[in-house]
Amino acid sequence: MADNVKPRVRVPKSASVDEVVVIKTLISHPMESGQRKDRDGNTIPRSIINRFTAEFNGTSVLDATLEPAISTNPYIEFSVKLPESGDFKFTWYDDDGSVYEDVQSIEVA
Amino acid sequence: MKPYRSLGAATTVAAVAAMTLAAVTASADPVMDDELVINEELELMTDTPAPEHLGGVLGETIYSGWRFRDTETRAMQKDDFDNPMFLFVDAGLAAWDTPEGAANQSCADCHNSIEDSMKGVRAAMPRVNADGELWSLENYVNDCRETRMEAEPWGWNSQEMKNMTAAIGLQSRGMPVEVQIDGEAAPFWEKGKEMYYTRFGQLEMSCANCHEDNFGNYIRSDHLSQGQVNGFPLYRLKDQGAVSMHQRFVGCVRDTRGETFAPGSQEFRELELYVASRGMGLPVETPAVRH
Amino acid sequence: MTLLTRRAALAVGAGVTALAMMPSVLLAQDTAEEGLSAEEFINEFTGGAEVADGDGVKLTAPEIAENGNTVPISVDAPGASEILLLAMGNPTPGVARFSFGELSGSQSASTRIRLAETQDVVAIAKLADGNFVRTSANIKVTIGGCGG
Question: Chains touching chain B at 3 or more Cβ pairs under 8 angstroms?
Answer without folding.
Answer: A, C
